[in-house]
Amino acid sequence: MALKIYSKGERVLRIEAVAHNIREFHCGRSLDNFPEIVRRLRGMLERFMQALSCIDQCFIGDEMLERLPPASRVGNTMVGGIDLNKPRLRHVAEAVIALSASPDGFTASALADQVRAFSDQCPSTYGPRQAAYDLKKLRGKDVVQRIGSTRRYEVMPSGLRAITALLVPQAKAIKPLLAAAQDISPSRGGQNLRPIDHHYQNLRLAMKGVFHELGIAA
Fold first, then answer.
1. In Å, how far are 19, 45, 75, 99, 185 from 153, measured between CA atoms?
2. Higher confidence at residue 207 or residue 8?
């Protein structure tokens, strides 16, 4: 199965859900099952659009930001908190975002496969057992929820906005800004700068002023 998004002319954006092999739907391949196949493809498409919306308008409230690190309770079990400074949980959060549009949710095994794809770990290091425990952590923070009484999970929109708000700025803005905050610059300006380079330079200069006012040495 695949999801595609591309432009058609100046004012049309087309998003498609394509099933190359409908066996993964587990609903049969006869013509009588065509409405069910279309329903599932539509569900994939809607979740994909919802994921794009959450990523584009990501935010995290003060309350959730404060309650991510402490331990939480899921049923009768106490589980650890979520610290996205740890590589393992960063990979888990990235995998959850990647799986958010999956048909009928995703399993702990699917999460483990995606985490290993991001981190190049072996199955003995990170498998379904570790993924199930991390899913419990995410359930305790209302990031994901179990689908009914099954062993499949889906991402909650508020949780998707929150983890995206924490991941994207850290990887795409904070790290480059801190790396460029040092006064190590060539005597001559860089050649053939791209528009993004100009934006980073303006951000770096603005952040130096913020650091100076706050008394922070980056």
1. 21, 17, 16, 10, 48
2. 8
Domains annotated for the chain, with CATH where assigned, are: 1-57 (no CATH), 58-167 (1.10.10.10), 169-182+192-214 (no CATH)
The residues with which 78 forms a beta bridge, in sequence order, are 73
CA distance 203 to 188: 19
To the nearest 10 degrees (0 to 180), the angle between helices 34-56 and 157-169 is 50
- Three-point CA angle 85, 90, 95, nearest 5°: 170
Alpha helices in the chain (DSSP H): 34-56, 62-67, 87-99, 108-119, 128-140, 157-169, 175-179, 195-214
pLDDT at 126: 94
Q: Classify 76 as helix, strand or coil.
A: coil
Instruction: Please list, residue by residue across 85-108, b when 16 or more beta carbons sit within 10 angstroms of its beta carbon and e when fewer do.
Output: eeebbbbbbbbbbbbbbbbebbbb
* pLDDT tens, residue by residue, 182-195: 555 555 555 677 88
Amino acid (1-letter code) at residue 161: R
The pLDDT mean for the chain works out to 83
Instruction: Give whichever of 11-20, 24-33, 183-192 has the largest mean pLDDT.
Output: 11-20
Q: Which pLDDT belongs to residue 135?
A: 95
Helix (H, G, I), strand (E, B) or coil at 175: helix
